[in-house]
Amino acid sequence: MERGTLYMIPCPISDETTPWEVLPEKNRAVMQSLDYFIVENTRTARRFLSKAALGLKIDTLEFVELNEHTTRSEEVEAMIRPLLEGRSAGVISEAGVPGVADPGALVVEAAHRHGIRVVPLVGPSSIILAVMASGLNGQSFAFNGYLPIKGPERPKAIRFYEQRAHREGQSQLFIEAPYRNQKLAEELLQTLQADTHLTIAMDLTAPTEFIATRRVAEWRKTKLPELQRRPAIWIIG
Fold it and tell me: How far apart are CA 82 and CA 84, in angstroms?
């Protein structure tokens, strides 16, 4: 039996952006052909597909969740079983591209193990967009996820990434829960060296998008933008 295909389907980063403002029209036909979706969050995936106006009856589609609560390999194996039987599926993250800083990578690994074709579709990635607009090294960069939250581990991590940026010339990216952005900004400006470059890229693709790269010494003299509850990518360079 011919096996199905696993499509990696990007979605908008910002709720203020409609799907076809940031996705190529080519994605539409692929999305319309599917009735099975492996998603980080069913509610947001259903909302995305509804906004995409694909002509699909959302209630007839099948959704299974793959997220931080998916811990057993048996669960992932069950998700790809329909593909082994010839049915194709789409993987959808809560925002941006699936499989990057996203649990969707688990089902992709399983698909490769079983010889299932994986097709990534074009769409917005906050990580890539931030690097593109930063002016920092786009030849060598690393996404490091979240910094430690508590105690001496946090400034220790900041100094580690700064040393790596200076020593290797590698841009160091990370994120924070949006409600902790202000505190993180204060800690970065207190901890980083004055000549280190820091990029703040917030609300990417949204009307309120803000992207700026300055030396820390300049940031210390500048009134920071409103940071709270705005999704952001931070880059040390």
Answer: 5
- pLDDT single digits (tens) 119-128: 999 999 999 9
Q: Is 144 within 8 Å of 32 (Cβ atoms)?
A: no
Distances (CA, A) of 69 to 10, 40, 48, 98, 189: 21, 10, 22, 16, 35
CA distances from residue 161 to 25, 174, 212, 216 in whole angstroms, order as listed: 39, 10, 19, 15
Is 41 strand, coil or helix? coil
Q: For residue range 96-131, what is the model confidence (pLDDT) as tens digits?
A: 999 998 888 999 999 999 999 999 999 999 999 999
In this structure, the strands spanning 197-202 and 210-215 are antiparallel
pTM of the predicted structure, to 2 decimals: 0.92
Burial (CB count <10 Å: 0-12, 13-18, 19+), residue 78: exposed
DSSP letter string, 58-113: GGGSEEEE-STT---HHHHHHHHHHHHTT--EEEE-SSB-TTSSSTTHHHHHHHHH
> Using alpha carbons only, how large is the chain's radius of gyration in Å?
20
